[in-house]
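Box 3.1 A note on notation
Throughout this textbook, protein chains are presented in two layers. The first layer is the amino acid sequence; the second is a token string describing backbone geometry. Keep the layers aligned when reading.
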Amino acid sequence: MEAGVKNGAAVRFDTTFRAFENRNFVRMWFGNCLSDTSRWMQLTLLAWLVLELTDSPWSVSLVGFFLMFPTLVLGLVGGVLADEVDRRRLLIMMLGTCVAACLGMTLLLADGAVKTWQAYLTILITGTAWALGFPSRRALLFDLLGASGITNAVALDTVGMNISRVLGPGLGGVLISLTGVVGGYTVVTLFYTISLVLFFFMRVESLPQHRRHNQSLFRNLMEGFRYIRQTPSVLAVVWITVAMNFLLFPFIPMVSVMARDVLHVGPTLMGILQAAQGFGAVIGAILIASAGSISFHGRIFVGGALFALTGLGLFAVSPWYFLSFPSLLLLGLGVSGFTTIQSALVMLVANKEMRGRALGAVSLAIGAGPLGSLMLGAMASWIGPVQAIALNSLVGVIVVTVIAISIPSIIGRTQPD
């Protein structure tokens, strides 16, 4: 019996980390981890900087708005690019842009002459790079590991993203206390640079084969919209992604407001609080990566969304730090199910000619985030951050439930293309 348990555990471990047998996946994984850590550090650093400069929840919410606004207007364009160009080269260009933008911000901070609009511009540039590159990033996973390994690869990529959600805010909060925002941005620039080098040395044999250079960008976009409308499971993923990014994720910059004004803690504990959601998401993503096979991807997707929204509600009404922390752990656990299955389900269901466009539609749906940031910022200034976040949680649970009931194929057995 003991030997059987050990063998079972070994199989489970091998299943969890089997994608790491591919060296190029390893390079990509570490590069993504560093760039994601930089992205979360920026959000933490600039949210605190703008809060100190303006003392305004509305101004803080604009940090999240400018980070995610590019996905609203460029998400599907990124999907078309993922089908039409060399994905690796595109990601190298995007990372180079991030290095340049963050280096410029570091120099401004060191000079002591930084303005609020410059913070917004920097996060807008890096958000644009992410919006154009994210569909290619996920499509590259399919190039590297194929259909049989895609769920495991996306789960491990999500593990990396969520580790970054722990490291980024945590490290950002500590660096604010020790070195100020300028020290934090120095580290951000360094991380982006190392990520750029890793992608430069990555090799991908399989490049997009279904290119349509004779079609205009507009025709490509319209073709993508038509395909998504005719594929119920993908359509449900897109609508739930819109709901989550409009109602859940805009709370992230508001953690700095809740930490200072409701929980009465400083930047270090604020960073640790931000990291709690990432820690919960890491646990959830590892559990998904450990699954030998998944037949009902949509149930994990919908259930994760509802778990996350419930955690958000608990965080909103918590007056104590020791209760807020586990609330965000629960939120992160739900987010792992939502984000891991999101891309995996789309890539499994979509046919290979439309895979990039389908992922681009998901990126476009993520673009609902900036609108949600504006709404949450306005409500927080009007009725208070506690009430605004709690209302988002309640509405989110209702909306996700209605979508799942209206498009029942999302919770049925996954039928890969």
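The mean pLDDT is 81. DSSP finds 14 helices and no strands in the chain.
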